[in-house]
Each structure stands twice: as structure tokens, then as C-alpha cells.
Amino acid sequence: MIFCVEDDDSIRELVVYTLESTGFTARGFENGQAFEQGVRNEIPDLVLMDIMLPGEDGISLLRKMRADPKRAKIPVIMLTAKGAEYDKVMALDLGADDYITKPFGMMELVSRIRAVLRRSEKRDNAEGQVISLRNLRLDLKKHEVTVDGKGVVLTLKEYSLLKILMENPGIVLTRDQLLTDIWGYEYISETRTVDVHIRTLRQKLETAGDLIQTVRGVGYKLAEG
What we know:
There is one protein chain. The chain is an alpha/beta fold. It is built from eight helices and twelve strands. Helix 6 (156-166) packs across helix 8 (192-205). The termini are far apart.
């Protein structure tokens, strides 16, 4: 089940029609209040969320979802006319899984949804694993990171960056690859987003920060052994 929260009737109806004609089950909601009522009755597999909504906006709704243990893991794709980098970064840092700027093609939307659902399934299947490297430990089931046994508080994107690096020790991951895998779409001209998040991640990891190595002109890798 996919929920589409969109106040524009024509867009909402087209999205729901497209999803149902491509094998999904979908429901549309015109505002945050209707969505909140709907999610109390049924937990969707994914939410398409407009930012500019009457009443409570999409950013506020996303923030509430990520703070609620019952809804925190629901994948969310933001659909919005706002295309500024600030809006994208804010939504993604709050936990959005992808961000699509209007106008967009229906087939692109379906492709993005399938990609996000695949990543979500892979993430869920990985629960229960613990990845360790020297004094750094990542507990996937508990969603916890520790350095020398001390807990480290990370944002969702910082956690995702660390996770993909720890799952691929010694392998160089390009900035474009990290953007695509973690932010969920091409962000080619703004690869500094990865650099900013890596810098903050290193600072938070303190003594384990130097495990994240820069491969000049390419990207990043996690040290081996």
C-alpha cells in the first residue's frame, strides 16, 4: 500500500491511477489531517509526500513520522515544486528517502518508488547484524553506533553513510554512488553534500573518524582491518 499526500486533486488522482495500473495499491490524501487519520488505520509500505500542503506541511509531517517508533521506518519520497538545494537537504536530513521535484514523469516516479522499496527491503533483511572495525561498532538491529563502547548520535544520513562504508571495507565509493545509494537520486552537480556529511561524521566518530579515508578526486572508503 502506498499513500500519496497531495493537495492538488489532478496530480493526486493521476499518481494513484498510475500506481494502481502498474501493480501497486494506493490511496490519496488531500492534507495532513486526512493522512494522519489514514495512517492510524493502516501502515503503508511507502508514503509520497508533498511539502506545500494546506494546514500542516509535509516537512512537519515527516518530522512527526520519524519521531514515532511505529512509523519511523516507513519509506518517504517527497514530491514538491520546491527545487532549492536547502529544501532538498532539509527533507533528506530529516529522513526522506528520496526527493522528486515537480513536474515529474509518472514512469520515473514508479521507478523511484521501486528503487526505494528495494533499499528498504534490503535494510530490513539486514537487521540483527553487527558490523565492527577496530573501536567502531555498528548494530543494525538497534540502529546504534559506538566508539570505544560509547554511543554516538548520528543523523539518518550520517548513519546511512557510515553503514554503506562499513558494509564495503576497503572499497572506494564515489561521491555520485553515495549520493545515488543514500539520497536516492542523481545529485551530480552537488557532490559537496557528501563531503559535508563525511566531515561531520568524522568529527562525531572522534578517534574512529580516521577510519574513513579520502580517495582524492574519487570518493571515500573505510580502512580495512
